[in-house]
Amino acid sequence: MTHPMHPLAPLPSIKLKIGTIILAAVGITIVVFWAGTKIGIWPSVSGIVAGICALVITRYLAHGLTSPLREMSEATAAMARGDYGRRVTATSKDEIGQLAASFNQMAGELDATERMRRDLIANVSHELRTPITALQAVLENMIDGVEPADPETMRTMLAQVERLGRLVAQLLDLSRLESGSMPLDRQPFEIEAVLEHAAREARLHSPDAIVSVNVEPDGLTADADPERLHQVVANLLENALRYTPIAGTVELRASRSADGVTIEVSDEGPGIPDDQVPRIFERFYRADAARSSQDGGAGLGLAIAQWIVDLHGGEIHPERREPHGCRMVVTLPGSRTATAVREPVHPGGT
Ligand SMILES: Nc1ncnc2c1ncn2[C@@H]1O[C@H](COP(=O)(O)OP(=O)(O)OP(=O)(O)O)[C@@H](O)[C@H]1O
Ligand SMILES: [Mg+2]
């Protein structure tokens, strides 16, 4: 629907528009009254005619001033009913036009948030349903006597229950991170300990892979929440190990950067295709849906990692490795070397 341009639309402010309306009303009154008396109509009659003309022109001109406000109140009512698709016409250049433009922007953002919420519920339900359906099928078969309750079947069921538990824990983490109810316990700590801890856990899960830890300079200290940082490293390491070929090498590196520390997790896998890079941090996004869902990943690991890094005021991004592979780079602000913390240098002696 196109709206005809209102004659006052180009004026840049409400004050100017009201001034113009008053001028027009006064002008038309004078002209009509003067013309009436000129052609010999009674002054009272031409006065009434002049008044009516002034009212008509005021109504016509003021309509353009108030119609966006009426539209906005209708759209607000529609939003309250859950219809976020409504937009208002924002053609005028005055304050109301600006308000209409902000209103449209807000409506767009609410629309996007609402869509995200719906997607989230759909994704969560889908991810929960898959293991539950599998469990239900096996249990039904066991009750019907089709499948024996042997240790192998029990292990399959345990794997599904673990998958459910992990998903629920991840969702809980995400919701705590997003709502801000998981405050950071920031403290200086040696990065090497955290990296070694994550590497030890990874070696337990993937005994074939080679996980190396390299911290430069020795005793490099980060100013962060060690438990949350461990979570970031563990998530990145899990991905790296999933994509690195059997007996491949995964490297954990930490070094000092311009304004803090840089932690890198590098693998020898296929890497992340350029067109997928902007999306991998989204909740439930899997670049390679078939493979990851079969491995049990829901696509939450990187979303959690990014939240934690953001809370620290840091940055996380993937880089391409030559000839192939992926390097996840995390930069955290604030660092020092442990030696400098433990043994302060006193130039003047003690
Ligand atoms: N090192 C990597 N090499 C190649 N692709 C990767 C790598 N890390 C992440 N990706 C891609 O990014 C997607 C999102 O990763 P993310 O860790 O968020 O989810 P996930 O590992 O699939 O599931 P979850 O971590 O919840 O178990 C992965 O599905 C994968 O396609
Ligand atoms: Mg992952």
Task: Give the gist of this structure.
The chain has 350 residues and is an alpha+beta fold. It has 3 domains: 14-108, no CATH class; 118-179, Signal transduction histidine kinase, dimerisation/phosphotransfer (DHp) domain (Helix Hairpins); 187-340, Heat Shock Protein 90 (2-Layer Sandwich), CATH 3.30.565.
Task: Give a structural overview.
The chain is α+β, with helices and mostly antiparallel strands. It is 57% helix and 14% strand. It has 9 helices and 8 strands. The chain has helices at 14-38, 43-80, 95-144, 151-179, 191-205, 226-243, 289-295, 301-311, 338-342, and strands at residues 187-190, 210-216, 220-224, 249-257, 260-266, 315-320, 326-333, 335-337. The chain is elongated.
Helical element count?
9
Per CATH, the architecture of the largest domain is 2-Layer Sandwich
Q: Nearest-angstrom radius of gyration?
A: 34 Å
What is the H/E string?
A: HHHHEHEEHEEHHEEEH
Query: What ligands can be seen in this structure?
Result: adenosine-5'-triphosphate, magnesium ion
CATH fold group of the largest domain: Heat Shock Protein 90
Number of strands: 8
CATH superfamily of the largest domain: Histidine kinase-like ATPase, C-terminal domain
Q: What is the helix fraction of residues, given as a range? A: 55-70%
Shape descriptor reads elongated
Average pLDDT, all residues: 88
The percentage of residues in β strands lies in 5-15%
Quaternary status = single chain
Alpha-beta classification: alpha+beta
Distance between the amino and carboxyl termini: 83 Å
Low-confidence stretches: 338-350
Q: How many distinct domains?
A: 3
- Under CATH at level 1, the class of the largest domain stands as Alpha Beta
**How many strands, what sense, and barrel or not for the largest sheet?**
5 strands, mixed
